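Field: sequence (string)
Field: structure_tokens (string)

Example rows 1 and 2, in order.
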Amino acid sequence: MDKEVVMKPASLVATIFLALISLGHLLRLVLQVEVTAGGIIIPMWLSAVACFFTGGLAIMLWTEIRRK
């Protein structure tokens, strides 16, 4: 018997949003894009931390909403 997975729309949107943010940080790291906010250069290591953090949250949310 197949178990049908029903995802809540808000959880799905949050998962996609977190994954896109993580992908953006990953692209910044790969392409070595310099980001300046308010005259301060944002270090690359901060994007590495943000990439792992948001990617981890996306994966945890994805697994939780698929588990029943």
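Row 2 begins here:
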Amino acid sequence: MFTDELAKIDWDETTAKIAAKTDRDVRRALGKEHCDVEDFMALISPAAEPYLETMAALSRKYTEERFGKTMSMFIPLYITNSCINHCVYCGFHATNPMPRVILTPEQCEDEYKAIKKLAPFENLLIVTGENPVKAGVPYLAKALDIAKKYFSNLKLEVMPLSAEDYAELTHHGMNGVICFQETYNRAHYNIYHPRGMKANFDWRCNGFDRMGQAGVHSIGMGVLIGLEKEWRTDLTMLARHLRYLQRHYWRTRYSVNFPRMCPAENGGFQPNCIMTDRELAQLTFAMRIFDHDVDISYSTRERPDFRDHMATLGVTTMSAASRTEPGGYSTHVNALEQFEVSDPRSADEVVQALRRMGVEAVWK
């Protein structure tokens, strides 16, 4: 399990190693065809900031070689905000006094139909809070059974499950799973996740192993940028985790996502760091240079102009027309969102913008 590997890696030592990377380390990494984690650390370090244009050109080159000038389009659907966790940064946390929604099978089907009217989406991401009693595996299986009549590629972003449960859901049409570790800093993890299923660091972190053991076709990874002051350290741990999974479950495809927290306007949880656009671009280029084949996804958390620009420089998957409230496309249009969308454009507007950048949207 990856937690056994993680136990051998010191967080503070990794932070210091990134800060100590030099111009020479960066130039060495840029000159290599295949980079290791040490090279990745150099490319996300402050020492690499003067090489952003060089990194962008390399990132574009590797992306076009592997993916062409295309963008895979997907759309998320939240089917429940019922959650037993107490994550201090999340609008769905258990103590938040909000209406809890669990879509019925009939309402799920209404949502699927509404999405198909927006655009020819074939890639659907089904998202839930974490409530195994009220929205557990049987509920997810039913949602998948209905969804596969409308979509050819189904992914879940749900609570970590057992290997047996993941395997069971593949028989109901699930092609992939996305899970955010949130942070790899075990020492701070329970500050952000004090109670609930998510408070179990090992169960969550080793969930990726269980996905691989179950033969899940596609695994998506990410950390929540802003939880930890040293975002570079968290992303280095993610890079190590990615390499570990690729060694052990080499038949599986992998994707990464870099969600950024924004400052709360209502006095809620405030990020411990604010990643700039320039830093996110640097991270994206570094990940593409580090791994030429990994799918890099940007959600509607990011602004339209920034997403458009990055569409030619490393990003290979984007969401569009997203609603982040349960049943937001048909059933509960004005429910509370999990996070505020920064790109409110319609799917057609996103596609037209991509075409202006020389990138063709791919739906299936």
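free_text_note (row 2): The beta strands are 70-80, 123-128, 153-157, 174-178, 218-222, 253-257, 295-298, 317-319, 360-362.
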